[in-house]
Amino acid sequence: MKDKEVSKKISESYKAAGPYIGLGTQLAATMVLMFFIGRWLDNKLNTFPILILICSFLGGAAGIYNFIITVLKLNEKKKLDKTS
Questions:
Q1: Calpha distance 22→24 (Å, rounded)
Q2: Where are the domains of the chain?
Q3: Per residue in 4-46, pLDDT tens?
Q4: In this structure, are residues 76 and 82 in contact, taking their beta carbons and an 8 Å threshold?
Q5: Which of 68, 58, 70, 69 has its CA nearest to residue 30?
Q6: pTM of the shown model
């Protein structure tokens, strides 16, 4: 009986943490993608390192914005689920 309770608690913990797990990867992927876009544009336009820097900062800002918005939505959903 105790094993089932422990298993259920672990399952509930993973279920609660699940939506947050991919956020860090998504943030990093956005920044890396924008870095490589900036590098590619710099090579095409011969403007090294200006576009790498601009795209990297834009990617970071977009990734952080998405991170914050997603966390706020998940927390609001969590509050609504508790009140129901």
A1: 6
A2: 22-83
A3: 888 888 888 888 788 888 888 899 999 999 999 999 999 999 9
A4: no
A5: 58
A6: 0.77
